[in-house]
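Posted in: Protein Modeling Q&A

I'm a second-year student putting together a small comparison for a lab meeting, and my supervisor asked me to include a predicted structure for histidine kinase. I've never done this before, so apologies if this is the wrong subforum. The sequence is pasted below exactly as I got it from our records. If anyone can share the structure token output, I'd also love a short note on what stands out.
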Amino acid sequence: MRNDIASAEHIVKILKNASKVAVIWVLSTMFAIVLNHMGVRIENLLLIYVVGVVICSVETSSMCWGIGSSVVFVFTFNFLFTAPKFTFQVDDPNYVISLMIFIIVAFIVASLTVKLQRQMDIANRRTEITTKLNAIGSGFLNLAGRPAIARYSCDSLKKLTEKRVDILIRSSDNEEFSDSIAEWCYRNSMICGHGEAQFGENTSLYVPIKNSNKTYGVIIFDCCDGDLEEEERGYVDTVISQITLVLERERLNEEKEETKIQIEKERLKSTLLRSISHDLRTPLTGIAGSSNFLYDNYGSLDEETAKSMLNDICTDAEWLNSMVENLLNMTRIQEGRLDIQKKKEVVDDLISGAVTLVSKRLGDHRLKTVTPHDIVLLPVDARLFTQVLVNLIDNAIRHSGNDTTITVSARVMGNFITFKVADNGSGIPEERLDKIFDNFFTTAYENGDKQRGVGLGLTICKAIVEAHGGHIKAVNNEGGGTTFQVDMPMEVRQNE
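Accepted answer (user: helix_wrangler)
Welcome! Here is the predicted structure, written out as tokens:
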């Protein structure tokens, strides 16, 4: 099939060149006839045919057609203009010499013209390729991510070689290509496939993307319609070197980002340890002290004192349990192991459950709840969402000041249920509103507040809410205090 196509293209090219030569021959002859009737010497008419030979050589880009046209033009000149006219005989020996010189000159001119034309074509081709390579190189500058690099590289090589191209880039050494030849090419960092020593019978050429230190992937060229020419391979090597540089840059950026992540993890761990060591000591000391006092003075304490100390023990224990639960949830979130089991829960039950858990920690705070009149069902993980409400109420208790009112409300807003936990305390400084959901962020110690708080509660709230497809935000109230708003979707989304 490919041979038939090539033969057809060759025939078409021959017919085109023959047509060009015929047109130039006709025009040259007509012009020579006109000048001959005007009295121009026939020796000068040869120059017209010399010009015709040059034009034929340029238009056909072939020495054979140039020489062939010179022979045709000589015989035409002899037939039409030399005596005896309309015959191929030459009576004057001078004309014989002139015609021979004409053929020699035409041969030389055709040869030089074709060579010049080919050099110009090569120069134009190189200029075109250089322009393309520069454009490709510029396109690599703003690329980020292996998929984008692979797509751009593939499109660039397709335009450059006019062949079907596929690029396989490996993100880690643990991966393995499904194409066994591509895998061999990657592992051995050697060109293989079409025309090569290894897998030479294959119709595709496999070229590794590599530098002196690392192999990043494999480029697959479909060679069904012909091999890559030597010149094309040079251009391909140039593009591959650019791809390698971009992938190396991407690898270095990933390593840099990974280093930053590791540094941040270590910082968080250190912060956590410092916070835990401080925050655990106080309630544990309280529990231990109260327990020892009760043990040592059992039977001699009045009922009111004993109840007060037991209440302190319960409060500290509940706080410790809440903090441990937050720490466990944060660990699950960071490791991607937070398991959400959604069931339709009654909104009133969610709020009442959270209020029950924090009731002993209210102190002199007043707690008000506002719930929908109708029964409203919300698809959530009850345990996790209750933890969200508990954390928000605890946060209000710690930071709203004494003798303040905390309001927990819920209402239906379109396809969402909006929960609000509001207080009428002093509020949050505006410059800190965008930081309160960060890990370990707390203003307690900055403000000299000795309230306990590792700074995980709000971070966990944000993670749990977003894992349910919801949103959380904090705003300062105009009359003072802060409102935390949680918007939860009422319907389970299709992609969840």
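A couple of things worth pointing out for your meeting: The mean pLDDT is 80. The CA atoms of residues 328 and 338 lie 10 Å apart.
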